[in-house]
């Protein structure tokens, strides 16, 4: 009698197909504008191309993995938090959103984030700023003052050493921060003028996005700023079309270079400890 062990590619393929089908269901093919479409840290041109050419946005195994990790982590932490309504529907001026948690008494919005990055995020990280802007938009849409960003780190902290043609090199210090959850309280007072600035920013980006879709004119939309362009664009499936085939109006270029609201002095009071 021998215990037989073989790799089951058939079952793996079934899971991969079903996971991809589930992820495909989340693709947006209509002109409904979601908060994630118009975040300044999001490539608005990629959102355009995804709407116009949904068949070209191929789902890689890595994308499916991130989708599953994010969905499962969000589900578990939402259940553990047990604080209110999950995935509530909110809308403002034609912009829709689904915050992860809205507390039962309606006074706090909570966003749950999950990352496999070895880097611990702070205010000057693009990823953290994306999380923050998304939550601020939700607070503006609901007229709620308080929010929480809760980030789950899946691996111990890593420090970057260098990059070369073979890739990036990291090391893990003896005092590296462990896996775990880090949460941040966010307060945006109801009488703060920043609310109006953020609202105008949202409506402006939504209006421009819809105009581009209606006119089939991606040149109206700004590309990413140069730093982000170098790190993100080469990995995008729409890279050649966006960079080499389609144009960008002068107004769009100027929009990409505008000073970020979060960089204006005294707008943000950030204390890491």
Explain how this protein is built.
The longest helix is centred in the last third of the chain and has 22 residues, at 194-215. Helix content is 40%, strand content 18%. A five-stranded mixed sheet has the order 2-5-6-7-10. The chain has a three-stranded mixed sheet with strand order 1-4-3. The chain has a two-stranded antiparallel sheet with strand order 8-9. Helix 1 (9-24) crosses helix 4 (61-81) and helix 5 packs across helix 6. The protein has a single domain (24-261), classed as Lambda Exonuclease, Chain A (Alpha-Beta Complex). The mean pLDDT is 85. With 273 residues, the protein is of the alpha+beta class. It is built from nine helices and ten strands. It has helices at residues 9-24, 35-38, 44-52, 61-81, 126-142, 194-215, 226-232, 239-245, 250-256, and strands spanning 33-34, 84-86, 90-92, 95-97, 101-103, 108-115, 146-153, 159-164, 167-171, 180-187.
């Amino acid at each position: 009698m021998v215990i037989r062990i073989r790799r089951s590619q058939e079952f793996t393929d079934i899971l991969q197909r079903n996971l991809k089908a589930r992820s495909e269901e989340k693709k947006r093919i209509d002109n409904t504008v979601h908060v994630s479409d118009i975040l300044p840290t999001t490539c608005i041109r990629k959102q355009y191309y995804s709407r116009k050419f949904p068949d070209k946005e191929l789902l890689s195994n890595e994308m499916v993995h991130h989708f599953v990790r994010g969905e499962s982590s969000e589900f578990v932490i939402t259940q553990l938090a047990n604080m209110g309504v999950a995935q509530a529907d909110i809308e403002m001026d034609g912009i829709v959103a689904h915050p992860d948690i809205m507390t039962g008494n309606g006074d706090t919005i909570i966003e749950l984030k999950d990352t496999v990055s070895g880097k611990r995020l702070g205010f000057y990280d693009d990823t953290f700023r994306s999380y923050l802007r998304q939550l601020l938009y939700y607070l503006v849409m609901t007229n709620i003052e308080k929010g929480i960003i809760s980030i789950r780190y899946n691996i111990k902290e890593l420090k970057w050493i260098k990059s070369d043609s073979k890739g990036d090199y990291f090391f893990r210090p003896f005092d590296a921060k462990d896996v775990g959850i880090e949460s941040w309280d966010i307060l945006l007072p109801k009488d703060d003028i920043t609310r109006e600035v953020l609202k105008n920013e949202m409506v402006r980006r939504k209006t421009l996005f819809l105009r581009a879709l209606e006119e089939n004119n991606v040149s109206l939309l700004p590309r990413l700023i140069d730093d982000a362009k170098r790190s993100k664009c080469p990995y995008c499936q729409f890279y050649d079309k966006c960079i080499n085939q389609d144009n960008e109006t002068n107004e769009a270029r100027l929009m990409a270079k505008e000073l970020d609201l979060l960089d204006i002095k005294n707008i943000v009071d950030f204390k890491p400890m």
